[in-house]
Amino acid sequence: MELKMVGNSGTVNATDDIFGREFNEALVHQVVVAYQANARVGSRAQKDRGAVNHSTKKPWRQKGTGRARAGMTSSPLWRGGGKIFPNSPDENFTHKVNRKMYRAGMASILSQLAREDRIRVVDAFTLEQPKTRLLAQKVKSMGFDGVLVITDALDENLKLSSRNLANVEVMDVRHANPVSLVRYPAVVVTKGAVAKLEEMFK
Predict the structure, then answer these.
(1) SS3 call for 172
(2) Cα–Cα dist 54/145, whole Å
(3) For residue 77, what are the CA distances in angstroms to 57, 82, 129?
(4) DSSP 8-state symbol, 64
(5) CA torsion 11→145→126→2, rounded to 10°?
(6) Are residues 2 and 184 in contact, defined by beta-carbon separation less than 8 angstroms?
(7) Residues 3, 121 contacting (CB under 8 angstroms)
(8) What would the pLDDT profile of 110-146 be if each residue is shown by its tens digit?
(9) How far, in Å, CA of 177 to CA of 201, rounded?
(10) SS3 category, 67
(11) Among 56, 132, 166, 171, which residue carries the largest CB count within 10 Å?
(12) pLDDT attached to residue 42
């Protein structure tokens, strides 16, 4: 598989095992869902009828009023009452994905990006100063509106410059993930990062 350089200034040879696989939609969906689920924090919590702040006094007498029987206002049937099956803060959202499946899913995404001509290679991607304006101009000069930049060595200037750009994300190749790869319309990868991707997901 040959990957195009930015500006169509040439091509870079890449292994077909990573950039020439068939697209496995079911596997990619599983990997993306698992990645998002594993990033969730189980911080939500609800109260059951024993935890809500209500009086235990019987709202009205048992018989003779014509209304339904009621024992206390903390009943789940009442507005403001406790939940029957409340969410717990220690809820576990993790999805297990085997390492072999994750690697195959990432290779499938990278291969589809290459087929759709959404991935470009550069020799290096650096900035002289940590300024958002410089990075925005650099990305625009390459012809991209929204882009994911994957580098083999992320310097401080790039990291600081990209924090305030909603349509640009810069990351080290070690942090490449399926959600970011799927999210952005274009991906720019340095030559060093291509070699590392081939090593990581072979």
Answers:
(1) strand
(2) 55
(3) 16, 8, 61
(4) S
(5) -10
(6) no
(7) yes
(8) 999 999 999 999 998 889 899 999 999 999 998 898 9
(9) 12
(10) coil
(11) 171
(12) 80
119-122/2-4 β-pairing: unpaired
pLDDT in tens, 146-170: 999 999 988 899 999 999 999 999 9
Phi-psi region of 188 (alpha: psi -120 to 50; beta: other; left: phi over 0): beta
Tokens coding 99 = 């390492």
Q: What's the whole-model pTM score?
A: 0.80
Q: Summarize pLDDT for 56-105 with one digit per residue, the tens.
A: 899 999 999 999 999 999 999 999 999 999 988 888 889 999 999 999 99
Could you tell me if 159 and 169 are in contact, meaning their C-beta atoms sit under 8 angstroms apart?
no
Cα separation of 194 and 18, whole Å?
10
Residues shown for the chain: 202
> Could you give the CA distance from residue 119 to residue 50 in angstroms, rounded to a whole number?
56
Q: Name residue 21's amino acid.
A: R
**Could you say which DSSP state residue 5 is in?**
B
Provide the CA 53 distance to its chain's centre, in angstroms.
38
Q: Detail the DSSP E strand segments found in the chain.
A: 2-4, 11-13, 119-122, 147-151, 168-172, 187-190
Rg (CA), the chain: 26
Distances (CA, A) of 111 to 28, 52, 195: 12, 53, 15
User: Amino acid identity, residue 124?
Assistant: A
Specify the pLDDT at position 9. 73
